[in-house]
Amino acid sequence: MGREYAVDRRIRRTKRLLHQAMATLLHEKSWDDIVVKEILARADVGRSTFYTHFADKDALLLSALRETVGSTSGDDGSRYSYPPESALRFSLPLLQHIERIRSDGRGSRHATRYAPLHARLQSALTALIAED
To answer: Is the pLDDT of residue 77 over 60?
Structure first.
């Protein structure tokens, strides 16, 4: 069990570093301009380690979104019972983020820049809500 815990902790740390690197890059450039190599450099993670956990940067984005939204599955694979409003528990932070972008004036300036990312997020959120 001790060895399994150490592996799990390292995996969680690696994923956290990759999520943070991706988030930082998203504030600097458009989704389509970000390449896996840049994410790896920011996270200081090797290419083979990245591809052990993720098929591509879209899979990394989905993983980060799942972590942000939170999983409805327990460690044993069972599903918890939540009230219907819990499917939208992530909405306040997401809406606050959108409002910050709008109030900065970045919303209209960068609408085209964020369009590919927003399309991916919409698809991922639709899937996560459907799972809930």
So the answer is: no
